[in-house]
Design goal:
Length: about 80
């Protein structure tokens, strides 16, 4: 358990131990869910991945393009239990 003191201005400084546990660094944000009976749940707000990093994520990486017939044969072989593992 980590104990923190509240200043006269109502501020709390999180100890390095807490920051390391949450995985936060200067400039990062944390969020506190207010729970009943004066309790709270604190967690780090992880930054969202920029949309441009998702482009090309499922890009075709095979050595060559496969024909519809080859794809259908592979599907049939898979259903028959003959597919490669």
């Amino acid at each position: 358990m980590v104990r923190l003191k509240v200043t006269a201005k109502g501020q709390v400084t999180l100890k390095k131990e807490v920051l390391d546990h949450l995985g936060v660094a200067p400039g990062d944000e944390i969020e506190i869910d207010l729970l009943p009976r004066g309790n709270g749940n604190i967690h780090a707000m992880k930054p969202m991945v920029p949309i441009d990093r998702l482009f090309g994520m499922f890009a075709h990486k095979a050595d060559r393009a496969y024909s519809i017939d080859e794809i259908n044969e592979a599907i049939e072989a898979g259903w028959a239990g003959e597919g490669k593992v």
